[in-house]
């Protein structure tokens, strides 16, 4: 997960796309760490309008710490990687984003269990379980101007595409589009949860930083799947 290092590619792609093993998940989280580092200032700028102006800095600190934890003692299962990263985010990220992102990834890791690999449908179900955990923890729902406005459309799109017979890469591409559109759709919403809700109508007209960072994570997952698929075809 180190932002400057790329974990091993792992096994080649299977019939439905890249093999989802520990190396694949480490590559995803490395890409996510890079994305958070690259976009930290923008996330903080978004948060300064309707929050505490610390979202980007908090996530950068958390993902950097998670990178170090995984590099020090790399789990050998995809579920193990997600669980460790989630636990690390909970312990190192301030504000609400640490517990929320930590719950997302730790719950997904628990759902995947101890298997050495996961099928695309298993990853989809694990991510949905994580998103549902976020909803329970934060008490939020779609339309409340939170990270769920990006995450719920993403997991819905992923599951729908897989159910229709799409492979992992096109299914994640659909999830990426849905997450980005969901984040952008928070602009006209009035916040009903979190720090932004204190602003009432003044929260309208600003893109939610949590939904924006959530879309970054989904985009990073799609990016890694696409790159792995291309490497296997080369």
TrEMBL record:
Keyword Transferase set for record: yes
InterPro entries per UniProt: DhaK_L_YcgS, DhaL_dom, DhaL_dom_sf, Dihydroxyacetone_Kinase
Keyword set, alphabetical order: Kinase, Transferase
Keyword hit for Thylakoid: no
Domain DhaL positions: 23-223
Gene Ontology MF terms: kinase activity
Residues annotated as signal peptide: none
Protein name per the record: Dihydroxyacetone kinase subunit DhaL
Lineage, highest ranks first: Bacteria, Bacillati, Actinomycetota, Actinomycetes, Kitasatosporales
């Amino acid at each position: 997960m180190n932002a400057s290092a790329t974990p091993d590619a792992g096994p080649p792609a299977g019939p439905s796309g890249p093999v989802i093993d520990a190396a694949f998940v480490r590559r995803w989280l490395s890409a996510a760490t890079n994305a958070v580092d690259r976009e930290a200032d923008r996330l903080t700028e978004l948060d300064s309008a309707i929050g505490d102006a610390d979202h980007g800095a908090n996530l950068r600190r958390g993902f950097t710490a998670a990178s170090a934890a995984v590099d020090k003692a790399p789990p050998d299962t995809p579920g193990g990687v997600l669980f460790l990263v989630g636990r690390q985010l909970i312990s190192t990220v301030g504000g609400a984003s640490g517990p929320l992102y930590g719950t997302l990834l730790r719950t997904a890791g628990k759902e995947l269990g101890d298997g050495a690999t996961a099928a695309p449908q298993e990853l989809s179900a694990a991510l949905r379980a994580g998103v549902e955990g976020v909803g329970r923890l934060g008490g939020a729902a779609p339309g409340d101007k939170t990270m769920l406005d990006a995450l719920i459309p993403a997991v819905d799109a992923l599951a729908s595409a897989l159910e229709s017979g799409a492979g992992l890469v096109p299914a994640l591409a659909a999830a990426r589009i849905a997450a980005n559109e969901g984040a952008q759709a928070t602009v006209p919403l009035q916040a009903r949860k979190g720090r932004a809700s204190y602003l009432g109508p003044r929260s309208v007209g600003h893109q939610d930083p949590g939904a924006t960072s959530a879309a970054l994570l989904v985009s990073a997952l799609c990016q890694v799947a696409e790159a792995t698929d291309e490497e296997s075809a080369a």
